[in-house]
Write a structure and sequence with these properties.
This protein has 186 residues and is mainly α. It contains six helices and two strands. β1 and β2 form a beta hairpin.
């Protein structure tokens, strides 16, 4: 008897996909957006969808399940971490005092990701709120070359960094989800 889940996918059209194209909220069949800003925003939106898809259908315990010791990484921890970094990115683009950390001490986003419904609900709400706030702050600066904040970070650099952060963590989410219930697919 083994505790390792069998690998599986929900997709029936392409065996390496997470879901069938008709069920995929990421629009990859249409015409790509026009312009650099729209393209960057489209990539960010699709990675955000991917993270949500990797977490869908799991209960709080599964979302909080750690990868392998000594790592504290979990899908729930990733949700909390991305909420924390969305907030931190707003600190980069302002001259005001930094916003406080959402979860307190360093690594609390992962360390305190426990498998109860209230923690899961709060994490999803935190992420949605922080994403909306960062999106709104950047919407006021459509010039990708504009430099913001104390360090003069370009809007383009911030958008690309956000995409990179989500893409990296979607890779982690792939492995975490497979470890939880065996589901695979890009």
């Amino acid at each position: 008897m083994t505790e390792e889940p069998a690998r599986w996918t929900q997709a029936t059209v392409y065996p390496d996909m997470w879901t069938d194209p008709a069920d995929d909220p990421r629009n990859s069949d249409g015409v790509s957006p026009d312009g650099e800003l729209a393209t960057l925003q489209d990539f960010l939106t699709n990675y955000r969808h991917t993270l949500r898809m990797k977490c869908d259908g799991l209960d709080p315990e599964q979302l909080a399940r750690r990868s392998v010791p000594p790592s504290t990484m979990s899908l729930l921890g990733l949700i909390r971490h991305l909420a924390e970094v969305e907030r931190d990115w707003r600190n980069w683009i302002t001259d005001a005092d930094p916003l406080p950390k959402l979860y307190g001490v360093r690594d609390a986003d992962f360390d305190q990701a426990i498998g109860d419904q209230a923690t899961v609900d709060a994490a999803h709400a935190d992420l949605a709120r922080e994403q909306a706030a960062t999106d709104a702050a950047l919407a006021a600066h459509p010039d990708l070359g504009e430099r913001l904040g104390k360090d003069g970070i370009a809007v383009r650099e911030l958008l690309i960094h956000r995409i990179e952060e989500y893409a990296r963590h979607c890779g982690h989410a792939d492995l975490l989800r497979e470890r939880v219930d065996g589901r695979v697919g890009q």
